[in-house]
């Protein structure tokens, strides 16, 4: 079927599906406390869930709006650089200061790589603009987005939800995936593809991926 | 506690004369990134650990070392990232 992820940094739809399911399983097993779980969403054609097409979704990620000062900190802890706050952390801020993010990993048939689609919402449900989203990002993410041709944001129609979302453009993906997967054998390459990919995509959008995802079980 | 980091060039990145050094486990990965940027005079580097992922700059060196070191060294690869302009 499609080309294997051999040396060119791409992967086939079957490999994507397998890697996605492995990601969901492994993530659930490592008990990530600051983030919800990734979920597999099969595509629906005429109401029937597809066996072969779907995407992975991480939804309801909280970020405290940049500049809001209402978080109650315990006495001596420094304010963390990372704006992501887990949904079971008690936050003494008003609802208006929380932004909610959804992240979807969708397979691109034209580039044969995963693509990250994301959107941010205010507490009242209004969509955030790109400028507002960038204000929520740590400086390292902004640097990645501004400086590298491999990681930049565009606005595209979500292939399964028919609405424009923001996306990390896939054109550079195979270049850096080639580097990340270089040392792995074929079987490892397929399954490890998404965690490896996520380590970079996550940094570009301020999503902190736990190290445990990369430890062998 | 200091740990040994071994940096390796990948792709067409220049090879550094000094490719092994010791760094405090309490430092963050950012220090390795900054070291590489200075030595290579490049801001846009793609930096990743041997086990095929790119760590966030605020990961602690000791965490990376404990989980991913091989033969007493943390291997960090670097490549030139495609930069704008």
Automatic annotation (TrEMBL), chain A:
Pfam families: Autophagy_act_C. It comes from the Eukaryota. Keywords: Autophagy, Transferase, Ubl conjugation pathway. GO terms for cellular component: cytosol. PANTHER family: UBIQUITIN-LIKE-CONJUGATING ENZYME ATG10. The keyword Transferase applies. GO terms for molecular function: Atg12 conjugating enzyme activity. The lineage of its organism: Eukaryota, Viridiplantae, Streptophyta, Embryophyta, Tracheophyta. InterPro entries: Atg3/Atg10 (IPR007135). Belongs to the ATG10 family. GO terms for biological process: autophagosome assembly; autophagy of mitochondrion; protein modification by small protein conjugation. This is Ubiquitin-like-conjugating enzyme ATG10. The keyword Cell membrane does not apply. It comes from Aegilops tauschii subsp. strangulata.
Automatic annotation (TrEMBL), chain B:
It holds the Pfam family APG12. It comes from the Eukaryota. Keywords: Autophagy, Isopeptide bond, Ubl conjugation pathway. GO terms for biological process: autophagosome assembly; autophagosome maturation; autophagy of mitochondrion; glycophagy; piecemeal microautophagy of the nucleus. One of its GO terms (molecular function) is Atg8-family ligase activity. Belongs to the ATG12 family. Forms a conjugate with ATG5. This is Ubiquitin-like protein ATG12.
């Amino acid at each position: 079927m499609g080309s294997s992820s051999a040396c060119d940094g791409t992967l086939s739809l079957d490999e994507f599906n397998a890697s996605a399911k492995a990601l969901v399983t492994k993530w659930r097993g490592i008990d990530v406390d600051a983030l919800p779980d990734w979920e597999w969403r099969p595509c629906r054609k005429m109401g029937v869930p597809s066996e072969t097409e779907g995407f992975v979704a991480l939804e309801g990620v909280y970020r405290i709006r940049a500049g809001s000062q209402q978080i109650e900190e315990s006495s001596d802890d420094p304010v963390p650089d990372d704006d992501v706050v887990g949904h079971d952390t008690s936050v003494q801020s008003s609802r208006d200061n929380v932004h909610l993010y959804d992240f979807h990993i969708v397979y691109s048939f034209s580039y044969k790589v995963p693509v990250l689609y994301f959107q941010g919402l205010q507490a009242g449900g209004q969509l955030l603009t790109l400028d507002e989203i960038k204000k929520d990002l740590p400086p390292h993410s902004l640097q990645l987005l501004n400086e590298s041709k491999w990681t930049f944001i565009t606005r595209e129609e979500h292939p399964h939800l028919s609405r424009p979302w923001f996306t990390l453009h896939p054109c550079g993906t195979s270049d850096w995936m080639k580097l990340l997967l270089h040392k792995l054998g074929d079987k490892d390459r397929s399954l490890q593809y998404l965690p490896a990919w996520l380590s970079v995509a996550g940094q570009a959008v301020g999503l902190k991926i736990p190290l445990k995802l990369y430890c062998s079980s | 506690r200091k740990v040994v980091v071994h940096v390796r060039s990948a792709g067409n990145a220049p090879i550094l004369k000094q490719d092994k050094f010791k760094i405090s486990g309490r430092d963050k990965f950012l220090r390795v990134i900054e070291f590489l940027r200075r030595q290579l005079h490049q801001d846009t580097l793609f930096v990743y650990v041997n086990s095929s992922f790119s760590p966030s700059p605020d990961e602690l060196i000791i965490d990376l070392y404990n989980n991913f070191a091989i033969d007493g060294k943390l291997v960090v690869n670097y490549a030139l990232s495609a930069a704008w302009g």
